[in-house]
Amino acid sequence: MKKIGFLSFGHWTPSSQSATRTAGDALLQSIDLAVAAEELGADGAYFRVHHFARQLASPFPLLAAVGAKTKRIEIGTAVIDMRYENPLYMAEDSGAADLIAGGRLQLGISRGSPEQVMDGWRYFGFSPDKNGSEEEMARRNAEVYLSALQGNGFAEPNPRPMFPNPPGLLRIEPHSPTLKERIWWGSSSNATAVWAAKLGMHLQSSTLKTDENGRPFHVQQAEQIRAYRDAWKAAGHEREARVSVSRSIFALVTDRDHAYFGRQSESDDTIGFIDDKTRAIFGRGYAAEPDALVEQLRADQAIAEADTLLLTVPNQLGVDYNAHIIESILKHVAPALGWR
């Protein structure tokens, strides 16, 4: 059995060929797709966060709206860039959204990826410590955020408050008691996956990974997942670790499917640089008729290691077509692989 959800980047563009021409379209259609995915029996609705871009950005209004419109489906991010976040304000926002959703948030956070502007986090008022790096800043913010989610008091109360306070130091409110157990770290390297395991965060691994040994993408990703699970076990956490991987997967069952994605059936891993120093490997997409697709996915070692699969969806093709993409995987592919 495997949890299957979708991951949307929420692109929008004022083009006649796009079904999402405004930011409002992207947000409202994201809610509609989450509702449709729940009705189809999918397990998760996840959203990417990018700043200074025509994509989904501030996630918590969207997550709260999805939570109010749905009843069962997990609602998450993959990922929130912690270089841009005030961790205490984020604890308030996420606590409120999780309470609205009835405790269904699964928040992926991370160091983030290259953004649309240079050092965009500086415009948000954040900068690394002297001689520190932006990666260290993101991990520090993550640790402060996790600490706030513990719910322990840390702030000295005003001796003459406007409203009565409970005794002792005050904590961030509203507090969602179990949200800390549902935080994931988006990791591109083995080392940060191990770090996340030690802190008790679940693991999100996407279609991009630091190229650490030249092996195929899915093999390196499976190695990363095994290193993460070993570190989780060594840390002695009582909870069960969860791991998600994301993939572009299209079952070709209609003429429209073939027209859109038929040419992707022979795609391969690619190599590139996400910055001046980091060589990365990008995983292939999958597009084939269901029987062939089942055999291709059966050979993906990282999917086999993960308990959760996030299907990246082309949101600009509209809610109905993206619901069809999800339904095709649930109906024609997942049962043959034992995921349903």
Model description:
The chain has a single domain, classed as TIM Barrel. Helix content is 36%, strand content 17%. The protein contains 10 helices and 13 strands. The chain has helices at 23-40, 60-69, 87-100, 134-149, 190-198, 217-235, 255-261, 290-298, 301-305, 319-333, and strands at 3-8, 44-47, 74-81, 105-110, 183-186, 202-205, 208-210, 243-247, 249-251, 270-273, 279-282, 286-288, 308-312. The model has no long low-confidence stretch (mean pLDDT 96). Keywords: Oxidoreductase. This is LLM class flavin-dependent oxidoreductase. Residues 8-258 form the Luciferase-like domain. Pfam families: Bac_luciferase (PF00296).
Let me know the largest β-sheet.
8 strands, parallel, barrel
Structural class category: alpha/beta
Helix content: 25-40%
**Over the alpha carbons, how many angstroms does the gyration radius reach?**
20 Å
Question: Which topology does CATH recognise?
Answer: TIM Barrel
Number of strands: 13
| Beta-strand percent range | 15-25%
- How widely separated are the two ends? 6 Å
The SSE order reads EHEHEHEHEHEEHEEHEEEHHEH
Q: Specify the CATH architecture.
A: Alpha-Beta Barrel
Widest sheet: strand ordering: 1-2-3-4-5-6-8-13
Low-pLDDT regions: none
Average pLDDT, rounded to a whole number, is: 96
* Highest CATH level, the class: Alpha Beta
